[in-house]
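Q: What would this chain look like folded?
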Amino acid sequence: MTKDELIKRIQSYEWTDFECKKAQRDVPKDAYSTVSAFANTQGGWLLFGVSEANGLLEISGVEPSAFDHMQDAFLTTLRSGQKLNHVINAQPHVYELDGKRLLAFYIPESERHQKPVYLNGNPRDSYIRRGARDERMTTNELQRFLRDATQQAWDGVAVTDFPVESSIDRETLSWYQTQFTRRNPEQREITDPVEFLLEWNFMVHQAGKPVLTRAAILLFGVDRCVRALLPRPVLDYQRIDARFENWSADERWHDRMVFEENLFKTWRGLVAKYSRVAEHPFKIDPATMRRNDDPPDYVAFREAAINLLIHQDYGDQYRKASLKWFIDRFVFWNPGDAFATTAQLLESNEKEIRNPLIVNAFRRIGLSDQAGTGIRAIMRNWHELGRRTPEIDNDKAGKSFQLVLCQELLVTQPADITGQVTGQVTGQVEAWVFPVLSACLKPKKSSEIQEITAIKHRETFQRNYLDFMLDEGLLARTIPEKPRSRLQRYQTTVQGKALLEQTCRTRDRFGVIH
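A: My prediction, written as structure tokens:
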């Protein structure tokens, strides 16, 4: 973090990755709760020498006589492995502002196998970061972290209560074997079900006997065995014939199916739903499930829906995956976060995955892109269609993952508008910008703007929407000297008005926004 970036953060507010402590003479006890929260979530900056007064952050500075002692004491505690259950390799930084010295430490996110990071030898003293708060984990949250920390993948565990003869759905397995042989002609064809399951590690030997794994039940199991292993639905599909912003959770869906069957039956049922209401009708070969006429958004839908099935935390017995299909967007939600960061998900390299047997089963028959490319394929397909960038919320604190595919088109401004209006706003302006600019001709609260954008997650709205418009100079605070004032409002700037007016002229001239 540069000095200018620090000043900008201090002028703003504390948030998920930024926490300030007055700490003028000693390291405060609650600093270690923040360390635990940062390490368990997505990392963050911890500052000593900054206090809060009347909703504003103020530089108080660390006393010169205590500076070296505080830094040494804090780093020694983090690296001792005694106060916390794992060594924390914090990165110290010193800043001088207004003639006062600040101590800053970057606390990195810990590796999956090291989480949860907790205090005083007690796992119940584990914290996560939500907004600007350090929150002690609930029992369910702690169980999710502990489950993800194990070396053995959940789906590879043997289950002795499921005899192979009565637990495997023959039709599903036969269908899969056919797809596998067609897709992998170089592999030896195995027709015997037990031999096939053993060959591809869906069964393991235990006490000299072949035993099914959890993956085998979820992928190929008969319905009753799937329900016995997973006492909650695999997926809750809802089609809602309304725009997202016009819908409330109290309203009834228009079509719903709760899938409580194996993953391949669920996938085929989901494709059947999609084929009936896709943008362009298409045909599916019932034998191969291959598409004869792909709708334009099929690649993104396929990858997002399969990600929903293969990457969710099946050890979470309380929260079910959901797919909500609105008129203007798909919303995919999973129990279980991605082990990678959001930035890493966009890279093409291999990622650490939660359910390796399940993931590889889908990939071997071509029902998912190659390892590490799924999210990139979604982004590429959506970009080619000219639609708004997909929204990813990889919630490390809540252990969940949400992907939103908005079907609204990006609004591309004529080339000369960018130069006339601003040198900062890019050539493509997303559609949500214009109703915000129009509404904020009269000052609006941030909650009112959030409602216009239809973004429900507060942090996503703050980072990707409100901060964007402030940084681009399209909106301005009505009380700039007090960013966190409860009376704060946001108003369209001269630059924002110019962009709005130019857009209106473009509409008048061509009938649409170009």
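DSSP finds 19 helices and 20 strands in the chain.
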